[in-house]
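User: Quick sanity check before I run a bigger batch. Here is a single chain. Can you write out its predicted 3D structure?
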Amino acid sequence: MYIAASRSSDVAAGTERKAGLRRVSANVVALGAVSLVTDISSEMVTAVLPLYLVLGLGLNPLQFGLLDGLYAGATAVVRVLGGHLADRWRRLKAVAGFGYGLSAVCKLGLVAAGSSVAAIGVVLAADRTGKGLRTAPRDALISLSSEPATLGRSFGVHRAMDTVGAFLGPLVAMAVLALSLGSYPSVFFTSFCIAAIAVLLLVLFVRDRPAAVDRAAVSVRAALGLLRERGFRRVAVWAALLGFVTLGDSFVYLVLQRRWDVAATFFPLLPLGTAAVYLVLAVPLGKLADRIGRWPVFLGGHVALVAALIALCGPVSGFWLAALALGLHGVFYAATDGVLMAAAGPLVPADLRATGLAVVQTGQAAARMLSSVLFGLAWTLWDLQPAVLVAAGALAVVALGAAFARPVRT
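Assistant: Done. Predicted structure follows.
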C-alpha cells in the first residue's frame, strides 16, 4: 500500500511539474501586454523616422548613421546603471516603470523638436535612455517569474506579444499619416498617448519579483565580478562581437526602399514583414532553444540575417527576394532577441539578474552603435551594394567563430 501511495504521489508530482512547464506565469503575460502597447507606440516612430530624416530633412547616409547609432547606442550607457539600481534597490518594477515613462514623454519631445536635427538627436538619446533603463529590469522580471527549464518559452511568449505591437505600430502610423495628410507631429503625439496607456498597464498589473537578499550583497564590485565568470564573460563578449557586425533595422529597410524603389507611402509597412515572421516564430524557436540548446538557435538567427543581406544585394532582383529578405530578418529576431536573455539568465545569480542581463545588453548596444556609424560611412564611401555585402561577410565570419566557441551548453 505504501509503495502504491508513493508511486501515486510521484505520478501526481510529475503531472504537476509537466503542467507547470507548459504554463507561462501571469507576470510574464502582463509584461507582454505592457510591451505590446509600448511597441505600438515606439514602432510608429521607428516606421516613419528613417523616411522623415532622410527624405524629409535631407540627411545623407553618414548623418543618418550617426543618428541611428545614437538611437541604438544611447541605451548602452544606462543599461548597466538601470540593472544595478533595480537589483540594489530591489525595485525592478519601479526602475522599469521610470524607463517606460521617460520614453513616453520623449514622444512629445519629438513634436517640440520640429525639424531641428540637433534637438531630434537629444530627444532620441533620451528616449533610448528610457529603453536602456527599463530593458534589464523587465527581462529580469521575466526570468525570475519563470521556471529555469522554460525560460526560452517565457521569453518567446513575451517577445511574441511585443511583436504584435511591432506589427500594429506601422499600420497605426500609416493610418495617422493618411488622416493627418502626412503630418509627422500627429504620428508622434498619437505615439505618446499610446505609450501612456502602457505605463498605466505596468502600474496596475505587473508584480515586482525582487530577489530576497541583503542590499549590501549587490555592489559594483559584485557586478564587475560577473565578468570573471568564464561562461558569462564568453557569452557577453561573443554577443557584443556579433552586435558589432549586425546591420541595424533602419538600414535594412532603407536598403529595401532604395533597391526596389518603394514609395514613401508604403515605407512604414516594410517592418510588418519582419514583425509577422517574428510573431509566428518567437514561441516555437523559444521552445526549440529550451530543447536543443539556446546558443545554436541564437547563432542560427545570425545565419538567417546573413542570408537576408545577400538576398538584399545579390545579383538577382525581384519582389520575391524582397519578401524573402524581410522573412529572414524576422527569423533573425525570433531566434536571437529573447533566446540570448534565456541563455544568459541562468549564468547570473538571482540577486544580480538585472545587472547581469544589462551587462550583456550593454555590450550589444554599444557594438551596434559603432556598427551603424561604420556602415553609414561605408555606404557613403563605397555605395550601397558593396557595403551590405561586406557587412554580410563580416557577420558570417564572426558567427562561425561563435559556433566554434560555443560558450553556452544549455
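Confidence is low (pLDDT under 50) at residues 1-21.

User: Great, the batch can go ahead then.
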